[in-house]
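quick one, 272 residues, struct below
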Amino acid sequence: MFTNPRPTEDEIGPYYVGYSVHDPGDQAADVPLAPRPRAPGLLARALGLGNPGLPELPAGARVLEIGCAAGAFLASLRDRGWCLEGIEPSPTAAAYARDVRGLDVRCGTIETVDLPEAAFDLVFAWHVVEHFAHPVRTLTAIRRVLKPGGLLCLSLPNAGAIEARIFGSYWGAWDPPLHYYHFTPASISAVLEKAGFAVTDIQHQRNVANIAQSLGAFLRDRRAGSALGRYLLRFGEGVPHEATITAVTKPLAVLLAAMRQGGRITVVGRRR
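---
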């Protein structure tokens, strides 16, 4: 599925003006990978608690994040002893990551930044693949910089989730025109296979942010000026009481993930 009509690559820039992900004040070191289970077994697996956390790599491993914004996630990895690098198309966010957080971040895209072939053990791309104008081409460029057997970890909205069908055009993760493509677990797997990756894991995240934002979009449309609608539209950006609401809705998030109906998924691919 794809957004149509959509801006060309030359026209898309203005739509990112004020994009909250590029604001260092809105950044959080979010890790869209399930934590390691405290208790193994059938119940843990059924609830989606048995998925691995961050990949285990030795000190000195070379790690790249694509679309790293202001560098919060990369900064959270410092104590692992990895060699960390980032690519970010926003000049302001890339400068913050370099000048304030002291990270090795270059401004550009995987196609425009000069990187050596087969150099990285692991590449992260959190919520960026849906922004790619040419997903197979860009994922193939990512494959080029990974070592044989290297890992790619993606996080993206799940357009096949029940929440997308319930909310229809109000589903918050459509996000046109910024999201060019809208993937299901099956379609992102097919795209990764075409780009030279073998999918090794698909995790359904325990996250209800899409649901909150979808309710916000519905209220904005049906009740002009709705304060609740405006609040919910910004859910996930650190709005007041967000942690409390997240805790209250956690059982729903766990249930949807256990049903393989999470509105956001993490996909792990290995370079063939």
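The beta strands are 62-66, 83-88, 105-107, 120-126, 146-157, 197-204, 264-271.
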